[in-house]
Write a structure and sequence with these properties.
Pfam families: C_GCAxxG_C_C (PF09719). The protein has helices at about 5-15, 20-30, 35-40, 45-50, 55-65. The protein is mainly α.
């Protein structure tokens, strides 16, 4: 699958939030080797950290790059 297909899978089918979707899709596509607990760390950043102020997808992308 390509990266967009992984994103669609995790967001639309598995119902992960935006930040979790990005890290999980990147983990699959780029073979990052992250474990489940590492990916769960981003669950609190979804929906703008549940305040609607900070984009969770942007936080997920930042986590992938670091």
């Amino acid at each position: 699958m390509n990266l967009q297909e992984w994103i669609d899978h995790y967001y639309l089918e598995e119902h992960y939030n935006c930040s979790e979707t990005i890290i999980r899709a990147a983990n699959q596509y780029y073979h990052l080797g992250l474990d489940e607990e590492s990916m769960k760390l981003l669950s609190c950043f979804g929906s703008g950290m549940y305040t609607g102020l900070t984009c969770g997808a942007l936080i997920g992308c930042t986590a992938v790059l670091s």
